[in-house]
């Protein structure tokens, strides 16, 4: 590990994530300029002080995170009355820094290995896509032929359905003496009647055939 990593490891336990946030020093002792005291703009005090580049008179609850307290310290410095030790990384932040250094300070051979593995994985994915495209291209003529056959069959079935409906409409007109909608219940009634009539005709035909055989 390099010099920076050693230094971080030596001091990593100086700050921990479980430490309570340091409370700000009493701001009553901070000097307030005459110009701030003469706030004739009627702006809220925090807004006016921010406009004048002066820290808030008190560190309110919304600032009670390390990030925001550090930002206040970085902007206003000691005038905020914030304990500067909170600017040091916490235990979890130190761990992240050390992990980052471990990655960036790895051996060149390890970095080359990682790059090579990523490149091979990317090439493998590209090869799989190319193989799939080539396979689909080979099957394209058959797929087109199958599509055309299905289209012809659908058209044929559609025409047959139209013919059946047309024949039923003609039968309904002959049966009732007027046109009947295919979805009308009377169409179903007619079909039942025709079916019964057909069964009766078939029965008569069988009886006639038996009589002929008997003679």
From TrEMBL:
Coiled coil: 105-139
UniProt keywords, alphabetically: Cell cycle, Coiled coil, Mitochondrion, Nucleus, Ribonucleoprotein, Ribosomal protein
Transmembrane feature ranges: none
InterPro entries in alphabetical order: Ribosomal_mL64, Ribosomal_mL64_sf
Highest taxon above the source species: Eukaryota
Cell compartment(s), UniProt: Mitochondrion; Nucleus
Any GO CC annotation of this UniProt entry: ribosome
Keyword Cell cycle part of the UniProt annotation: yes
Protein name according to UniProt: Large ribosomal subunit protein mL64
């Amino acid at each position: 590990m390099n010099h920076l990593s050693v230094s971080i490891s030596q001091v990593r336990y100086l700050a921990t994530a479980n430490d309570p946030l340091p409370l700000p020093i009493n701001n009553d002792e901070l000097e307030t300029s005459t110009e701030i005291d003469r706030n004739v703009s009627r702006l809220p005090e925090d807004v006016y002080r921010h406009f004048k580049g002066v820290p808030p008179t008190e560190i309110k609850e919304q600032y009670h995170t390390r990030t925001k307290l550090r930002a206040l310290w970085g902007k206003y410095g000691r005038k905020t009355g914030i304990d500067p030790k909170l600017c040091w990384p916490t235990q979890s932040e130190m761990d992240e820094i050390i992990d980052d250094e471990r990655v960036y300070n790895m051996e060149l051979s390890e970095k080359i290995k990682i790059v090579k593995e990523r490149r091979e994985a990317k090439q493998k994915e590209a090869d799989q896509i190319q193989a799939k495209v080539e396979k689909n291209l080979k099957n394209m003529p058959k797929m087109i032929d199958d599509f055309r056959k299905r289209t012809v069959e659908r058209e044929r079935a559609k025409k047959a359905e139209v013919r059946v409906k047309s024949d039923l409409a003609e039968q309904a007109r002959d049966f009732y003496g007027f046109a009947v909608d295919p979805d009308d219940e009377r169409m179903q009634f007619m079909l039942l009647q025709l079916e019964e009539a057909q069964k009766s005709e078939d029965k008569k035909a069988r009886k006639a055939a038996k009589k002929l055989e008997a003679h």
